[in-house]
Design a protein that fits this description.
heterotrimer; A alpha/beta; B mainly alpha; C mainly alpha; B: mainly alpha; ABC transporter involved in vitamin B12 uptake, BtuC; two-stranded antiparallel ribbon; 2 strands; C: mainly alpha; 11 helices; 73% helix; globular; Branched-chain amino acid transport system permease protein (chain B); membrane (chain B)
């Protein structure tokens, strides 16, 4: 099992953000996490990626206990993510934003950093190749020298994905990647995610409100409400679960 | 001519110090009100080593810089992880502590009366060469993975960590680089004026440098350099009395903040591309 | 004799508390460290001084004038240096630069006005000391302590019990929402600056009495900052506690090691606190959400 989350709990003051949350994901899996706002979805991502330390429970990646590791160490172990509110680096252009994800692996020292050495140029070149490839995968190659702020919203989201890919993840956490996109863009995103997943063989955890994306693409879905897991199953199972319908999908037609 | 040479040498020394501050504040977003203390440490250690111990200038300079970096490491260890406001306050306290120490250690440093008798080794040529080298080093740093990670950490620390960047480490690297450059500026300063006293290295001086970076454009190395040149040379050239200089200077900066907050140069960076020279290369802006 | 030291420490600490509180007010409302606070202190103290010298008056009047001057200059400073940043979308980093520049400006003005000399306040009291049993307290220390306590108490009352105080607290908590609720945010910010400036004036007079008056007096504000850090940035109560603690510890250490090393001790105390309890005595650690 690639990713194993065991009984995670996290509270803030008196508020129990998530309680007793467990999840498994294997290579090539696309796992959806849905639930009303405030259900604790982003908190699960924050705990898994190391932004928060879990009060209880453990997280295992490829058998290794990563629960108490520092955030950047967890990334280097193989978990990368995108953010609900886009967090691109201002002051760097599109290419440089993606390079930042390569930089922790770049193999040169401060000496090369200060001077124009061959090793530095070689590594920078290697990095650029990788980043250019990832930009091409998401369709942003021609924007390489633009400022991220100047890109339309949908493209900014893709940039975040390109950046996260450059971390060479084993598990990719996508936090509402379709937020703010129109239906065509959502369709393109859906195709992109499933293509990446099958080609590169990592696991994807997906928080989404756009049910056409989540239901259409996930192998398995976890439903959260008020910090608790109220259902786990395939999209069909979840769709017809009365508790889920009541809590989240509402009285309207549950067909997506 | 003598006068202009002197103004330019002082300006060059300021520029060197400010490139250090640019790495710390402009690139990495850390505000230190104690960088001048490292200039003092560089100045005093090299001065004492040459005058009292008899070491050759170059060796004394290297030792002074190395020791400054060591002190920087000790101070930096608890400090770089702190929140932005705390960093400025802690470095402020540190700067004051160093000034107090320098005042107290009279037998070695001459105390408040200052330390004199330093031979003049800083020529105009040395100043120019040093400035050119420091600017080049900082420019390469900025274009490297280090520079990018610094800017990322400044822009969004959380996202930077999420990308695998060891933020604490990159901040320390930026801090130490800044310390080394500032200490060297101190060495040049001491061996130009031949006299130093603890009073000139206070938090006001550190603050001045931060202001110069913002005046020129916090995101632009070019801006920081030219801004420093303007703010250092102009008051000297205009031969204002010292007090009027400060007032003139403060008003200038307040005007910039009110009307062009991004600084004189904003994000603009001088590069081969912007000069229209050379083939189209992807370079960092 | 240690009681004597404690009393001296408390008196000193109470003035640091005034500095730290004035500083905290601005930190709470605009979320930055106002580095012009010290120079404002000096400027208002000088205004009070010249008033005292030209119009032969009591300490009370001098303090009142200084506080008024401090408040007004502070408001003017807010307009010139901070208004643009508050209103526009520029990064809060600029507050830092602006405040330092403003402070430099204040100090430059003072230096041009009075020159580099040291000034002494005229003697305000007949007898200079008060005796409580075997302990000798200087009258100025006593008045400093009492007025600081009074000022702080009044401030607390104001913040907790009046509608302006409530408005201050809500703007500090969430500026945008407060504005949407109909609070004139700019007015309230000006109020905060006025109060902060008035406190600076008060501290300036007392420090001037204690240490003599000179243009660089504002540098003592460093102590106020350190106190704020120890007490926890953002908490007025913490600032006071930190200031008293600093005053006491410093007086104690000075007694043993001499005043020259005071800044070294302050720095080490601050460093220790930051390592053990980064949020200070009363501050809180805000964790960032992703």
């Amino acid at each position: 099992m690639l990713l194993e989350v065991q009984n995670i709990s996290k509270s803030f003051g008196g508020v129990k953000a998530i309680q007793d949350f467990s999840l498994t994901a294997d290579k090539g899996d696309i796992v959806g996490i849905i639930g009303p706002n405030g259900a604790g979805k982003t908190t699960t991502f924050n705990v898994i990626s190391g932004v928060y330390r879990a009060d209880q429970g453990k997280v295992f990646l490829d058998g290794k206990d990563i629960t108490n590791m520092e955030q950047h160490q967890i990334t280097r172990e193989g978990i990368s993510r995108t953010f609900q509110n886009i967090r691109l680096f201002k002051g760097l252009n599109v290419m440089e934003n993606v390079m930042c994800a390569f930089d922790p692996r770049a193999n040169y020292s401060i000496f090369d950093g200060l001077l124009p050495t061959p090793r530095r140029f070689a590594e920078e070149k290697r990095g650029r190749k990788i980043c250019e490839h990832n930009l091409e995968v998401v369709g942003l190659k021609k924007y390489a020298n633009e400022k991220p702020e100047s890109l339309p919203y949908g493209l900014q989201r893709r940039l975040e994905i390109a950046r996260a890919l450059t971390c060479q993840p084993k598990v990719l956490l996508l936090d509402e990647p379709a937020a703010g996109l129109n239906p065509t863009e959502v369709k393109e995103l859906t195709e992109l995610i499933s293509r990446l997943c099958s080609e590169l063989g990592f696991a994807v955890l997906l928080i989404e409100h756009r049910l056409e994306l989540v239901m259409g693409i996930s192998h398995k879905i976890y439903v959260l409400n008020f910090g608790k897991t109220i259902a786990v199953g395939t999209p069909d199972e979840v769709r017809s679960n009365p508790e889920v319908i009541e809590a989240y999908l509402g009285e309207e037609d549950a067909e997506c | 001519m003598e006068f202009y040479l002197s103004v330019m040498t002082f300006t060059l020394i300021s520029v060197i110090a400010v490139t250090g501050v640019y790495v710390l504040t402009g690139l990495t977003g850390m505000f230190s009100l104690g960088q001048a203390a490292f200039m003092a440490i560089g100045a005093y250690i090299s001065g004492v080593l040459v005058v009292k111990v008899g070491l050759p200038f170059a060796l004394a300079a290297i030792i002074a810089i190395a020791l400054s970096v060591l002190v920087g490491y000790i101070v930096g260890l608890p400090t770089v992880r702190l929140r932005r406001d705390y960093i400025s306050l802690v470095t402020l306290g540190f700067g004051e502590a160093i000034t107090a120490l320098l005042n107290q250690m009279q037998s070695i440093t001459g105390g408040a009366l200052g330390f004199s008798g330093i031979p003049q080794k800083t020529t105009f040529t040395l100043a120019v060469a040093s400035a050119a080298v420091c600017i080049a080093l900082v420019a390469y740093f900025k274009a490297s993975k280090y520079g990018r990670q610094c800017i990322a950490a400044k822009s969004d620390e959380l996202a930077a960590k999420a990308m695998g960047i060891d933020v604490a480490r990159i901040k320390m690297i930026a801090f130490l680089f800044s310390v080394a450059v500032t200490a060297y500026a101190g060495v040049l300063y001491a061996f130009y004026t031949t006299y130093v006293d603890p009073g000139i290295f206070g938090w006001k001086k550190s603050a001045e440098w931060v202001i110069m970076v913002f005046f020129g454009g916090v995101n632009s190395l070019t801006g920081s350099i030219i801004g420093t040149a303007i703010l250092t040379a102009l008051p000297e050239m205009l031969r204002f009395a010292a007090e009027y200089r400060t007032v003139f200077y403060s008003i200038l900066v307040l005007l910039i903040i009110n009307f062009k907050p991004a600084g004189l140069f904003g994000e603009y960076e001088l590069s081969l591309k912007s000069l229209g020279i050379g083939r189209e290369k992807k370079n960092a802006a | 004799m240690s009681l004597q030291i404690i009393i001296n420490g408390l008196a000193l600490g109470s003035v640091y508390a005034i500095i730290a509180t004035g500083f905290s007010l601005i930190f709470n409302i605009l979320k930055f460290s106002n580095f012009s606070h010290g120079a404002l202190m000096t400027l208002s103290a000088f205004i009070g001084y010249f008033f005292a010298v030209t119009v032969n008056s009591s300490l009370l009047l001098v303090v009142a004038i200084s506080m008024l001057a401090g408040g007004l200059v502070s408001c003017l400073g807010e307009l010139v240096a901070f208004r643009k940043i508050t209103l526009s979308n520029t990064s809060p980093i600029y507050f830092f630069v602006s405040s330092i520049t403003l402070g430099t400006l204040y100090e430059g003005i003072v230096t041009i006005w009075v020159g580099p000399n040291f000034y002494n306040y005229p003697r305000f009291f007949e007898t200079t000391v008060v005796k409580l049993g075997s302990i000798v307290i200087s009258k100025s220390d006593l008045i400093m302590f009492v007025s600081s306590c009074a000022a702080l108490a009044l401030l607390m009352l104001f913040i907790q019990k009046t509608k302006f105080g409530r408005a201050l607290r809500s703007v500090s908590f969430d500026r945008e929402t407060a504005g949407l609720m109909g609070i004139d945010v700019i007015r309230i910010i000006q109020l905060a600056f006025f109060l902060s400036g008035a406190l600076a004036g008060l501290a300036g007079v007392f420090l001037g009495i204690n240490y003599t008056l000179y243009p660089q007096l504002g540098n003592l504000v460093v102590k106020g900052f350190i106190a704020s850090v120890i007490g926890g940035l953002g908490s007025v109560f913490g600032a006071v506690a930190g200031a008293l603690l600093l005053g006491l510890t410093e007086t104690l250490l000075i007694n043993f090691a001499g005043s020259g090393y005071a800044p070294v001790f302050s720095f080490l105390i601050m460093l220790v606190f930051l390592l053990i309890r980064p949020q200070g005595i009363a501050g809180s650690n805000v964790q960032e959400k992703a």
